[in-house]
Request: fold
Amino acid sequence: MSRPVLDVRNLSTAVTTRKGDLTIVDDLNLKVKRGETVAIIGESGCGKSLAALSLMRLLPKGRARIRGGEIRLEDRDLAKLPDRDVARLRGRDIAMIFQDPMSALNPVMTIGRQIEEAIRAHVDLKGEALRARSIELLKLVHIPDPEARLKEYPHRLSGGMCQRIAIAMAIACEPRLLIADEPTTALDVTIQAQVLQLLQELKARTGMALLIITHDFGVVAEMADRVVVMYAGRKVEEGTVREIFRDPRHPYTQGLLALTLHPGPPKVDRLPEIRGVVPAYEARGVGCPFADRCDKVMEVCRRQAPATIEVAQNSLNGNHEVACWAAELESERYVVTVDH
Amino acid sequence: MSLLSITNLEVHLPTGAGLVHAVNGLSFDITEGETIGLIGESGCGKSTLGRALLRLSPATGGRIELDGQDITHLNAKALKAVRPKIQMIFQDNAGALNPRHTVGKSIGQPLRLTGWNAKDAKARVHELLAQVGLSKDAYDRYPNEFSGGQRQRVGIARAIALNPKLIVCDEPVSALDPSVRAQIINLLRDLQQRLGISYLFISHDLAVVEHIADRVVVMYLGQVMEQGARDTFWKQPLHPYTRALLAAVPSADPDTVRVKSVLQGELPSNINLPAGCPFQARCPLATEQCRTEKPALRRAASGNDVACHLVDTASDIHPQPTEETIPCPAP
Amino acid sequence: MHFLRNFSRNPMALTGGLLLLLVLLAALVAPVIFPADPLRIVGPALIEPFTDGHYPLGTDGMGRDMLAMIIHGAGTTLAIGVSAALTALVIGVTIGAIAGYYGGWIGNLFGRLIELFQTIPGIVFILALVSLFGAHMVLIVLIIGLVSWESIARLTRAEVMAWKKRDFILACRATGMTDIGIIFGEILPNALAPVIAVSTLSIAGAILAESGLSFLGLGDPNISTWGRLVGDGRNMITSAWYISAIPGVAIVVTVFALSLVSDGLGEILNPRLRR
Reply:
């Protein structure tokens, strides 16, 4: 099998507080293969956005930093590269789009100028060729009447249009990996459908890989090949999209799926709740961060953070992994009954 | 008798760019203890409608009747007696609270404004905190010390302080994580069962509306495209717009292949309303009649009211888009 | 109180605050240490500072005690500075709040009013009004206030416009609060944070304006402020420079202290509440 486009190993990112460094992203392992879509799903505070910023080396200086681990983009370790070299890779090999399309664009520059900037960051085009490429990009993202749009300013455009332009700028230099941080959370369902369809189309056309960060299982079901579930800065489960939906092993994943609403029967009166709240990072102890909210909690969960185990082996598509003592117990029992 | 009755409501707001026709001839009723789900895309006028019901935006036409009383043009003084009956909770749970007021002060504000003395108000606030699932010590803390879900509970506590009969919920859970969303939806349900409040639940999230609403109204450019009761609406949506909205919701099943026809374009500007059907610009089935004649809301056999020339109301046969989407001109 | 703790943690605000405290102290102890009229002639003229034990800061051209005049000047200078800034604050916040809260013709009218005063050159306006109406302390305070309110109004207007859009204002209206109640009870407490910081600076501006007037001999002749002292020493700058320099240094230190406090306040009051 070919080398993955992105291979993240033991990534830890910390934010700087008055009392010292506070680790948010804790020992994250993640692989994205060529042309694959990986979804990171988690709720506010799980560290998914900080992880994404770490991958792009866009952490605010002095306030957050990568504490350890590797971010291998093809053959280079982004975590160790000096800033100047990373800047050369951004846009060309790895690009990102963000949640709020309105703030992704510079309000005092025309659309055309911004796209041109994105192109010229890595490709030396000028004049007519540059303009032609800008229009080509706008057509790629289905912006109607692209020639006219070049002269407009972002405030005249809707959220959906701004997000498409942000996508156009991100793919201007055909990156191998596009990171999308909650790209449709701020958009209406119809516009979301359009943007997701556009991302699929671009993937098919350019063969780029997509790392999509979301809290919406619907988006995951539609877009992802593999899913990573994050909680309190750690990966708690990973598997193919089918494995996660049909056979979730971690109680958090199970809980989230149970309360996910989607149109269609059956109807329940009360939505199942996950009791409690996400623990503060400062209060994170040695055990499993989900212990206080878990229905299957055992004594060992509070004493020791669970190790990641493989629940199913499927070397073609990667393994179904989960970090949970209860799940480990259940899978052992399951393996015993099936195999013997 | 309905609790709230809206008849041909019009809200046209003058802005720098022109007259915004936010609400154009809307009519529906809400009965006691009922939840109406109002669905539509951003800019379709649903938030403006919510505000108009609370008389926070002026109605430029039509009638709003609350508890049998016409409140459309009441002056400020007469409104004072009516205001406690209808309250609102907001999408931006942080912006909905004064950052300089403690939670206790924010929740107690409607009480103090209607003449409660400090002692009784404080007791009532503690009662409300318990009802929405917040601890007693929340009273003296500030909004920035709470999470989004907790702030939304504070907003809810404030809204129920005066025992309203109707609460307009303007996208109350859109900004929340899924697990918190479930908690707040359950809370709203519990409060409704306990206190008999009606909700006008405004949202662009169809799944949430399907879960919580007894009846559903679909809005487009300030007009009703379709409305119906829970049992019939989701089984048999008739209007092309409703069907397109439903098709756009990502299915939570990885094996379901998405329907190819994704609705193109965006909601057009409501400054210059098109003649005829408001949905014509994006509708893959629009005919000449649709462009010139505005369809009226008619009762279909299944029980839904639908405003579309192409729906055969007698037999519930609705128009089917073809497999390939007919590309629509951009707005 | 939160505020005092934050204040003392901010080095800028703390330094400025301490300096101001010194000035205030001087103003307060003046009648105690120097009970007699400071403008009284007490000794030989033109004694250099730091030479004579009786007159630590020397004497001026007429034989008046420099130290006594400086200490007494603290009170008058501060008083005029603070009152003028307060006048500007009251006028500016009122007009700015109305301009920001109300749309339509009221908002427009008050907005244009602010712009009108923006175009008037400050010093020229002050000089013109003083020559017209005379140089009495109360009038000077009012005139300086009249010239300085416009920047406060602009800031207030911008802040009010931003806060007005928040949903909690809608919630207040939904419970029947009046406009006045909303402006004073809900919006201004939030909007005033940056305004207070700027106002501190406008005290400095007022002091400088008054000093300028007095220096030119257009101030109130019965009051002895630092500006007046600087002006009195104008003719002897080359020979007895200290007569102008010492009150000049006092003005500089006070203005500097005020700007430190203003910057510090800006830091303390703003970011917290912006959430």
Summary: The domain at 75-273 of chain C is CATH 1.10.3720.10 (MetI-like fold). Chain C is about 75% helix and 0% strand. The longest helix of chain C spans residues 179-215. Chain C touches chain B at residues 166-168, 170-178, 186, 189-190, 273, 275 (CB under 8 Å).
